[in-house]
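Supplementary notes for students who missed Thursday's class. We covered one full example, reproduced here. Read the sequence, then the structure, then the short commentary at the end.
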Amino acid sequence: MEALILTCSTGGGHNAAAYAVAEELISRGHTAKVLDPYSLIGERLAKAVGGTYVRMVQISPSLFGVVYKLGDTYRRLPVKSPVYAVNGRMAKYLDRYFRENKTDVVLCTHVFGAEMLTYMRKHGMNVPPTVFVATDYTCIPFTEETECDCYIVPSQDLNDDYIRRGVPEEKLVIGGIPVKKAFRDGMSKQKARENLGLDPNSEYLILSGGSMGAGKLRTAIRVLEPILESEDKRLIVLCGNNGGLYGSLNDNYGGNSRITIMPSTNDMPTYLKACDIFIGKPGGLSSTECASARVPTIFISPIPGCETYNCKFFVGRGMALSVRSIRHSLIPAVRRLENDSAVQKMKRQQEKYISGRGAEAVSDLCEKLCRTES
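Structure (token representation):
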């Protein structure tokens, strides 16, 4: 099977899901290529599309919230959005790609790719079987404009949301958000710390701003600093791809033996297995990765929009805690997760709702679609 996975760098989650599916398909002997469709015009355009989103979130998350609300409002109108029209311009480039490259199935971990494929079909172009892979715990704006063959959704509890938005129920497949197998490989905390060279006897907190280095990390560090000094706790801060944030925090805390400032890491599964508590934004992928690794989780600074829904989904099912005020509520949340019974309860809820097998579910569906086509 030759699979094409369309993604877009508007945040790292879409790419992470794409590569998780590719990893699983390749392990089964298939061919899988991950592609940002805008790169068919040029890498500069692909970077510009993703970069515009990332800069907006880094500089003003509230502005992104306004944009998200506009999209949510537009979906109530009986016409296609301007976003659909813009993505439709990519049709000729994808059409050329399909003519030149054998493709048995095409997956989309971003709605932009799904809109492109929908436009192609409506204009008589040949398109392989299509699968939309949701990467958030809500039906995001513009999903209802797409017409894919199947929609992989994270939970049965979200079906009504998709149906209400106009996605046919018979196209919905409950599969989960794809994450790499390493997040559920059973590595012990002791082994993870040994692999990373961490102190086996300290308590480790991870503070993350996601791939974009967003969120109020500086505030969180200042709030946590006193308990790092007075107790045997250490803090690992992940700045993602935000070079400015990394440089600034490194200047301020680089000499603190209890605080480690890092850019992005390719070994997130091991860091999650090594830590006692994860603190960060409720991104769709990062939330799923934490739950798959069975790590106690505290959400801070959700980006208004889909992350608000992700937070509600996880907190409402006991899979994470959330704090509205970092200054007043973060330390009490950390204290709650120092209670072993609370931690075990949270892990049981994570196991109940998040299998961590989303990539396998997507791959199973792709194989089924290809058998049907042949």
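Commentary. The mean pLDDT is 90. Residues 182-353 form a domain with the Rossmann fold fold (CATH 3.40.50.2000). If anything here is unclear, bring it to office hours.
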